[in-house]
């Protein structure tokens, strides 16, 4: 049960950050289906920093530089979506899908090239496992072994809630996702607000990527990306009705089912059931389909999401 709580908390941290990123992008009017790809770019950048840092680097240095690299990589990759969808008014669904495909392929090539350039040195995956194995990101509360990334996610969630409900900038972003023409008529720069929304999604998505591979995933394989965590975060965002506090509770629910695939062997009655481990791996995605099937009719997405802004239209 302790392991179930630990895994639920860390998967919740991933889903909360990435879903919040999707929320800010869609609240500005841009559908970001590229969250999976942004996570991969963020994970790759953060992991490379972990590998390149000296073995005697302090825990604080490792955490800060890793998070910073992941956030910057996430924002840079999200710029591809922003430029294509805002400036060139490209189809947002296609651009997000293209970014997901680009991310995994690019990361695989870059990491292989990285290992080749470091031939004779420590292999990328081996060094990454070494850093994680030495618990650089962990701390204990009683019998629970938790990650500092959970604390980071909790702090960012609080900041997101305050920002979303209490700041003028968030109100302007939300206005651009509901009625951009009306927002423009009162002097709000719709293009700038949408850029901010997409960049925020890149920032949070990149952080979610490094948390996934550094704390939530036991192995590092770019061939498999981040195992659909970005798409699961989209389901969390929709179920959470594009509101940060509801996204948080939704993330915990989905994370609970995602965690079962990691710990069911240690839970007596679950292990005794004649159910394959593959089925437990499928649980979060099955649950997301069921939940969305029953709740999608009552969903209220931002009215202008997915619609390129035309300044001349009224």
UniProtKB/TrEMBL annotation:
A GO MF label: transmembrane transporter activity
Signal peptide boundaries: none
Record key words, sorted: Cell membrane, Membrane, Sugar transport, Transmembrane, Transmembrane helix, Transport
Name this protein carries in UniProt: Simple sugar transport system permease protein
Primary residence: membrane
Keyword Transport: yes
Organism from which the protein derives: Pseudobutyrivibrio xylanivorans DSM 14809
Cellular component aspect of the GO annotation: plasma membrane
